[in-house]
Amino acid sequence: MDSPNRPRPTRDPSRHAAPQVFDYLRERIIALELPPGTLISRIELQDLFGFSSTPVRDALLKLQEESLVEIFPQHATVVSPIDLKLARQAHFLRRSVEQEAVRTIALMEERTEVVRRLETVIDVQAALLARGDLPGFENADREFHRIFFETVGVSELWTMTRRYSGHIDRIRRLHLPMPGKASQVIADHRAIVAGIASGDVSAAQGALREHLSKSLAFTPDLRARWPDYFRD
Q1: If residue 202 lies in a helix (H) or strand (E), which one and from where to where?
Q2: How far apart are the C-alpha atoms of 212 and 172, rounded to whole Å?
Q3: Which runs of consecutive H residues, i.e. helices, occur in 80-164?
Q4: Which 3 state secondary structure label does DSSP give 231?
């Protein structure tokens, strides 16, 4: 289960054990380093972290709550297929919250600082893309959208939407390496920021809506390439 290209996780004594295992596995599942159908060994995780069985079990139960793994008692734990119904629900939730956040920001009297922060993230994305660093690009993409939630004072909703985003995030991870996709993300982000900067709510919301819809719209092509990764 462990990848030779990924460093062994470092135990953080300031954190509880189960969240460390959870974060490690969730990140790898979202990145498709652990694709659908992968068997997860509890024994390997215990050896990897040096933890007892209890935090490993608790981490897997939390992943099961997000429908990212399927636990078959006394048998196996397996990474779940990408559930299209859950992906659509996560998309609906995120689109609804982010469009309201973008509207609020575009109507703010003083939005120069948030525009500057968003433009800085876009510049970082462009540099990461030029280096071919797609994992870093994805992290910057999340930061771009997180700024919306932080700016309007609903950071807890960012945490909530992230909790429900595992399936659509895996769709986006499949889509991102496609030719032109990452460049289109940058162009979309610039269009969103342009709408915010000018105070044009309709333009900002329209650009956001178009941006968030693309990976889901591309799902039939992705499913044709990786049919074993999906279920309705």
Answers
A1: helix 201-217
A2: 10
A3: 84-106, 112-130, 134-151, 155-163
A4: strand
Predicted confidence pLDDT, tens digits, the chain (232 residues): 555 456 677 777 777 889 999 999 999 999 999 999 999 999 999 999 989 999 999 999 999 999 999 999 878 999 999 999 999 999 999 999 999 999 999 999 999 999 999 999 999 999 999 999 999 999 999 999 999 999 999 999 999 999 999 999 999 999 999 999 999 999 999 999 999 999 999 999 999 999 999 989 999 999 999 999 999 7
Tokens at 159, concatenated: 């945490």
Tokens representing 152 are 């309007």
- Cα distances from 32 to residues 92, 163, 171, in angstroms, run 23, 17, 10
Q: Say which residue the tokens 């269009």 belong to.
A: 191
Distance in angstroms (rounded) separating the CA atoms of residues 5 and 20? 19
